[in-house]
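Hey,
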Amino acid sequence: LRLISACKNILYFDGVAFLLIKAIKQQLCELPLSVGYIEGIRPYKQPSILVKSHNESREWSELIKDEIEISINSDSVRVGLLDSGVNNAHELIAPFLSDDMMKSAIGVSDTIDHSFHGTDMAGLILYGDMTDLIYGHKKSVTLENNLASVKIYESGYETDSDFYGAVIEDAIQQAHEMGASIQCMAVTDDISYDCKSTSSSAALDESIYNGGNCDRLVVVSAGNIETTEIDASDYIESCKANVIKSPAQAWNALTVGAYTEKTVVTDDRYKPLAAPGGISPMSRTSWSWRNGLNKPEIVMEGGNVADHPVLQTTTTPDLSLISTSADLAESLEPFYATSAATALAARMAAKIKTVNPDLSLLSVRGMMVHSARWTEEMKRIGSINDIMSICGYGIPDEKIALFSNERYATYIFENE
């Protein structure tokens, strides 16, 4: 009780209060005897400590580099990143992305990331959230997958939207020729669409189908809601009102939305909007389609948004993931929204394929969707139709998806 009374900032969500406390093991053991209705106790991971300054981010990056164990061979799964290119000079990316694995599908020959997006995606695909890595209990990190990069976007370079489908087809083909059967795309149109196909989504569908071979898996982001468009009083309504962006309506692609477990900010001026396990305020949905079709299919961690008395609705490092920066002077930086979630989905797909090399890409996709579950917070959204259109099938359970053959009875029949 003394611990709780000492807390300066208590977050109240529907049905639960969230407190940040400091305690020793004995105090935690005694806590259930003093306070009733404890839903759970979990360690706090503070992302902002990794990016307090450029010097500190470089020191953390160096620490991570020293703990890497590389286990790459000719059978390793390669993930193709269709994005703004990658700065593969970064010390955490260089071992997994050589110059000959970097191409361009637009009229820009330079394959380096100048838009500060693709390098962040690459870091999450390889390592996941750096915050989890730093707070993990493992002494070393074994990486078994590598990358290929195809630039499909460049800040300041315009591609006619009517021809963007050709860019997507070319990029997927180039990545496939470099050995990337799992591909990650978090570049979307500026305009939202309903469930009808566009030239971009049709090209994505056709490329994944690949003449009936069905030998490609592309995870694509649902698209982001700008923080200025989020209603702090009821952010779920903002998610409902903002439709997914093309080409995320492609049915052969696995569309990824964002949820979050990040709800604690050390600066009590920031009030997180989403409760633990809730859909991220930045995640677009298919709620307005109202035709029985749903996108996204799954959601992954994408960070939270906070309400601030001056900045209003805004992101902050404590509510973000941490990944590799294209600017080598700072090395690590905050990253968030459905882009981050899509990178994590590509990472999980690569893990499933690595553990189960005989699984087809359709089965890898099937395992991700089949293992997904809704959180209790997602169930509070409303009807099943509302939940499906906002959260899809939920969050994939990595243990079920990875070890289906050993521990769970999962039957997938591949016919046509």
